[in-house]
Design a protein that fits this description.
The structure holds 2 protein chains of 2 kinds.
Chain A: H1 6-34, H2 38-42, H3 54-64, H4 74-105, H5 111-120, H6 130-139, H7 146-150, H8 157-168, H9 172-180, H10 185-213, H11 217-222, H12 231-238, H13 248-279
Helix pairs in contact in A: 1-13, 3-13, 4-8, 4-10, 8-10, 10-13, 12-13
Chain B: E1 4-13, E2 17-27, E3 32-36, H1 43-51, E4 58-63, E5 66-67, E6 78-81, H2 93-103, H3 108-121, H4 137-150, E7 155-159, H5 167-184, E8 187-192, H6 195-201, E9 204-209, E10 212-217, H7 219-224, H8 229-234, E11 241-247, E12 252-254, E13 259-260, E14 271-276, E15 282-283, E16 294-305, E17 309-316, E18 319-326, E19 336-341, E20 347-350
Parallel strand pairs in B: 3-8, 3-9, 6-7, 7-8
Antiparallel strand pairs in B: 1-2, 1-4, 4-5, 9-10, 11-12, 11-14, 12-13, 14-20, 15-19, 16-17, 16-19, 17-18
Helix pairs in contact in B: 2-3, 2-4, 3-4
């Protein structure tokens, strides 16, 4: 596959560079726009170099409050979204690792029924069960709460199946060795299963954090108050159909801020799970 | 240290598959008992029942004169060495060995002392900070042994511990296990399908077949007096030669119709099997007496020299046999030899395979 032909290398590099430009340019452009004043943005063409309003725009967005979303700052939205994404990611991991543990390592009546019940929920995406779930949340008075935002999204068949597949690759002898060594179910889980699942947990955390971060439909339904909403919904509310109403410079700031946490999580966790991949062994 | 006693132990799996059919074994304190048999004979199941990893359908397992049927593996005070070592991959060698002790709530300084002692015994001291994947097969095997000996259990259980090692290392480790077991004096049960391992390690050898015990005894007793054709062909390499014969009251007749003298042999069954070890044949010079022994014609098919000895493959009465000859063999293919099986070396089995 790898050729040392100089022409093909140049072609390959050109293709790669074009690809990167296509992906990166809009983000760069958004960043440029977030450092301009509203007037500059409204008067095309937009400069390709950063403007002089970086500090001003970012402090306004973060702490000043934005008119179209009831004066709530983007900082508040970031906090909300972080809480939501973290709660969903951590909650999903805890629930699915425990249920996979039960299904793989314990023999109890109805084990297969439970497995299939979990499996079947894969076929029911959030959108399909959204009305009954919404009704339950309203009846429980959970509109505009973090509980309402996160709990219905926590149960995850995908993560359960993933852990199940991984647990099934753990040799039976290892389980038996632990039993002979006097490790009860809880010790086995804590001392052996969790450390071995490190890599899987890290990978899942990244995926689930981004899943939680980019939720749109559920927070849209669950939140009415502007100070309880997430950054994606906030972003949507900041854009008016009448162009002149929209504070585009602040919208762009919010866009950039919304990208940062997921990128940060990917970068930090990637290092962590690559190290995990290198270190552990079955 | 303890005795191990199995009384009429049975294992029936759901679906009525009887994996172990009523086994009685008594192992004295400090003895090394080897369970040997072909795959699927129930030897591992039996070991796992002693360990408490498998439930016991019927019968009792006693360790140190105490029935342990209903105790979990951790409460039976046993330690087990697994075929694939089953080391905890994320723990250092030290922690692998210390884990069982920590779970028992032993104080730290005592754990440290025991682990270091065991490591010294097994020459693992310089490897204590490594992880299992950084070790060779033989070293992992030692760690698995170390994990067993730090516990200072009443019984060691070995489940084919050497089958993942190469032949040379296996020989070395076999000697080490034997010495270690002697030195520690811990009652041990060792499962293997390798008859050589079984012969060399065992104080008591248990040959199993299809879920039942075929024969129990000292290895050499079993070698010299196999209770059945199964044991005869399983123990010893190359295996015992077995030649089916029919008896008409006055003598024995080979499959190809050759009548052979059988003075002094009391064969009452119509169908019988005569057996002899490859090393027990003598080439007849014509003068020796062979009262009670058998004088047979052997047609040579081929010779395999392996250095210290040679294997001569041939046919007696239509059955293929192998003969072990010290040093080099002068036989050529198609040679005809007169051979004698001395009476005391002759094994007779009935038509059902049981020793007569």
């Amino acid at each position: 596959m790898i050729q040392n032909n100089p022409i093909s290398r140049i072609v390959a590099h050109i293709v790669l560079i074009i690809g990167i430009l296509i992906v990166a340019f809009p983000i760069y452009y958004a960043f440029i726009a977030s450092t301009q004043s509203l007037q500059d943005i409204m008067r095309p063409p937009l400069s390709l170099l950063p403007g002089g309003h970086f500090w001003e725009n970012y402090t306004t967005a973060l702490f000043g409050g934005i008119g179209r979303i009831g004066g709530v700052g983007v900082g508040r939205l970031l906090i909300n979204t972080t809480i939501m994404a973290l709660a969903i990611a951590v909650g999903k991991i805890i629930i699915s690792i425990l249920s996979a543990y039960a299904i793989v390592f314990f023999r109890f009546p109805g084990r297969m029924i439970f497995f299939w019940l979990i499996f079947i929920t894969l076929m029911l995406p959030v959108e399909v069960r959204i009305l009954p779930t919404y009704k339950v949340m309203v009846d429980l008075g959970l509109i505009d709460t973090y509980t309402g935002l996160t709990v219905p999204l926590m149960a995850s068949a995908t993560a359960t199946l993933l852990f199940r597949q991984f647990f099934m690759t753990i040799p039976g002898e290892l389980v038996e060795a632990a039993r002979v060594d006097g490790a009860g179910p809880w010790r086995f889980f804590k001392d052996i299963l969790l450390p071995l699942s490190k890599t899987n947990i890290a990978a899942l955390f990244v995926i689930l954090f981004i899943y939680g971060w980019t939720q749109y439909l559920w927070p849209l339904l669950m939140t009415n108050r502007n100070d309880m909403t997430t950054i994606v919904i906030g972003l949507r509310k900041m854009i008016s159909f009448a162009d002149a109403d929209t504070e585009w410079h602040l919208v762009m700031v919010t866009c950039i801020l919304a990208i940062l946490p997921p990128v940060l999580v990917v970068v930090l966790m990637q290092r962590w799970f690559v190290r995990g991949l290198v270190e552990t062994e079955k | 240290m303890a005795s191990v006693e199995l009384t009429n132990v049975r294992k029936v799996y759901a679906g009525a598959v009887e994996a172990v059919k009523g086994v009685d074994i008594a192992i004295k304190d400090g003895a090394l008992c080897v369970l040997v048999g072909p795959s699927g004979c129930g030897k591992s199941t039996l070991l796992r029942m002693i360990a408490g990893l498998e439930s016991i359908t019927d019968g009792t397992v006693k360790i140190d004169n105490k029935v342990v049927n209903d105790l979990g593996p951790a409460e039976r005070d046993i330690a087990m060495v697994f075929q694939n070592y089953a080391l905890y991959p994320h723990m250092k060698v030290y922690d692998n060995m210390a884990y069982g002790l920590r779970n028992r709530g032993m104080p730290k300084d005592q754990i440290d002392k025991r682990v270091r002692e065991a490591a010294a015994t097994l020459e693992l001291t310089h490897l204590l900070e490594r992880r299992p994947k950084e070790l060779s097969g033989g070293q992992r095997q030692r760690v698995a042994m170390g994990r067993a000996i730090v516990r200072n259990p009443k019984v060691f259980l070995f489940d084919e511990p050497l089958s993942n090692l190469d032949a040379k290392l296996r020989g070395q480790m076999r000697v080490e296990i034997k010495n270690l077991q002697r030195q520690l004096g811990v009652t041990s049960v060792y499962v293997t399908h390798d008859q050589l391992e079984a012969m060399t390690l065992a104080d008591i050898l248990v040959v199993m077949n299809a879920g039942a015990v075929e024969q129990i005894g000292a290895p050499l007793d079993i070698y010299e007096k196999p209770a059945s054709t199964f044991v005869a062909s399983f123990i010893g390499a190359p295996p015992m030669n077995l030649i089916p014969v029919t008896s008409d009251g006055s003598g024995l007749i080979l499959k190809d119709g050759t009548r052979i003298g059988a003075q002094g042999l009391a064969v009452t069954d119509k169908d019988a099997i005569i057996g002899f070890r490859p090393e027990d044949l003598e080439v007849a010079t014509g003068t020796e007496s062979h009262v009670g022994g058998l004088l047979l014609d052997l047609k040579v098919l081929g010779v395999e020299p392996v250095g210290a000895e040679s294997y001569v493959y041939g046919i007696i009465g239509g059955e293929r046999v192998v003969v072990r000859v010290a040093g080099r063999s002068v036989s050529q293919p198609d040679d005809h030899l007169r051979v004698i099986i001395p009476k005391e070396k002759l094994h007779l089995f009935g038509g059902n395979g049981k020793r007569l």
